[in-house]
Write a structure and sequence with these properties.
Strand order of the largest sheet of chain A: 2-1-6-5
Enzyme class (chains A, B): hydrolase
Catalytic activity (chains A, B): 1-(5-phospho-beta-D-ribosyl)-ATP + H2O = 1-(5-phospho-beta-D-ribosyl)-5'-AMP + diphosphate + H(+); 1-(5-phospho-beta-D-ribosyl)-5'-AMP + H2O = 1-(5-phospho-beta-D-ribosyl)-5-[(5-phospho-beta-D-ribosylamino)methylideneamino]imidazole-4-carboxamide
Radius of gyration of chain A: 16 Å
Subcellular location (chains A, B): Cytoplasm
CATH topology of one domain in chain A: Ubiquitin-like (UB roll)
Distance between the termini of chain A: 31 Å
Structural class of chain A: mainly beta
CATH superfamily of one domain in chain A: Phosphoribosyl-AMP cyclohydrolase
CATH class of one domain in chain A: Alpha Beta
GO molecular function (chains A, B): magnesium ion binding; phosphoribosyl-AMP cyclohydrolase activity; phosphoribosyl-ATP diphosphatase activity; zinc ion binding
Largest sheet of chain A: 4 strands, mixed
Protein name (chains A, B): Phosphoribosyl-AMP cyclohydrolase
Shape of chain A: globular
Largest interface: A-B, 47 and 47 residues
Oligomer: homodimer
Chain lengths: ~140, ~140
Amino acid sequence: MEQQTTGGDWLDHVRWDANGLVPAIAQEKGSNDILMFAWMNREALAETVRTGQAVYWSRSRNRLWRKGEESGHVQHVHEIRLDCDEDVVLLKIDQVGGIACHTGRHSCFFQKFEGDAANGTWVAVEPILKNPEHIYK
Amino acid sequence: MEQQTTGGDWLDHVRWDANGLVPAIAQEKGSNDILMFAWMNREALAETVRTGQAVYWSRSRNRLWRKGEESGHVQHVHEIRLDCDEDVVLLKIDQVGGIACHTGRHSCFFQKFEGDAANGTWVAVEPILKNPEHIYK
């Protein structure tokens, strides 16, 4: 893992997985909509608390990901919860721009299952609020 | 992995991880509260659709986990969502008994962060609705 510059018993209390990560769920304050799911390492969680804005660990880019660093769609964190097993984090956030998803939608969970087990399909049911080409310039 | 008895293109559409699993978030219909986080394999998701009740994959017990099989706290599934990367599932559910957590609480996310990065702590802020000893007999 990257250099550790973060301390505190509260971070030791989290049960990081073998890769030093935990799942993190971002839930919108007010609506309670689930906007996205990502991962955090120790530094990401410490930075989230320190800055009051959601910071994740990008597994694809292998670096800290300050949500909104490119899109401007920053997440202001109002509350942080930990689950009973201490291995999942829940953020209650305000989503700047109302768009959490890189597709330009409010939430990443826009594909709804329709049908039955033998013949099912996933249908995009949420509108694109902003063209991603205009989000990521 | 266990024997595959499940088919359907919609299952192939899910991006299962190296262990054949995806994260699954259970959200309460109506309140939109996030009740729990677990994992699903292909069979668990297929069984969830087939039965209309949440079925997870227990990594600790290495078998299908029909939520509520011991506690009676079954989850009736109203809607299933998939995220933009097709690697996280969201269930919208009705929680029988109003208790999702094995601690006897409504939600597993009952520990709230308080303090700051240098001196933080996790505080249990949700009531125990039923003594776990009376849930698991």
